[in-house]
Specification:
The chain has helices spanning 11-22, 29-36, 45-57, 100-110, 126-146; strands spanning 62-64, 72-74, 81-85, 91-94, 120-123. It is of the alpha+beta class and 147 residues long. It folds into 2 domains: 1-75, Arc Repressor Mutant, subunit A, CATH 1.10.10.10; 79-147, 2-Layer Sandwich (Dna Ligase, domain 1). The strands form 2 sheets. Strands 4-3-5 form a 3-stranded mixed β-sheet, with no helix packed on it. It has a two-stranded antiparallel ribbon with strand order 1-2. Strand 1 and strand 2 form a beta hairpin. Helix 1 crosses helix 3 (45-57) and helix 2 packs across helix 3.
Length: 147
């Protein structure tokens, strides 16, 4: 544990961790709260946030803070990168990206001791692309019908 403090593993924390690890959607705390309440109906959103904070501090999960949007959480604590849809906010994992060479180059050029690297790819997910195509067809059809 990074914090050096003893944290007993409560049933609530265990359920939160299990659900988060099961999900691949990188949920927000509120989304995770709705899911966990199916097993623990009396759990509060505050309890979810406190336990997520403990899990992050102990390197058991990742907090994805994209700035300007609600933080999302990832049950995979291993190094990997993310692709975020700029329209709907969906987040997907990218697992096959090697950044070792880039890190070595950066250390040589700037003299920094690197503690963490965050690479975020932004784009439009397949579902939003399909929706945009459908919306464009509808707009063209409406314009055509007005003539």
């Amino acid at each position: 544990m990074r914090t050096g403090e003893f944290q007993r593993n409560t049933r609530q924390r265990q359920v939160i961790l299990e659900e988060l690890c099961r999900l691949k959607s990188h949920p927000t705390a509120a989304e995770l709260h709705r899911i966990v309440r199916k097993q623990l109906p009396k759990i509060s959103l505050g309890t979810i946030y406190r336990n997520l904070d403990i899990l992050v501090r102990n390197d058991m999960i990742q907090k994805l803070d994209f700035g300007g949007s609600e933080a999302r959480f990832d049950g995979n604590p291993n190094r990997h990168y993310h692709l975020r849809c700029i329209q709907c906010g969906r987040v997907d994992d990218i697992k096959d990206l090697s950044t070792g060479i880039m890190l070595d180059d950066f250390k040589r050029l700037k003299g920094y001791k690197i503690h963490h690297l965050r690479i975020e790819f932004l784009g439009i997910c397949p579902e939003c692309q399909k929706k945009a195509k459908t919306d464009n067809k509808d707009v063209r059809r409406k314009k055509k019908n007005r003539r």
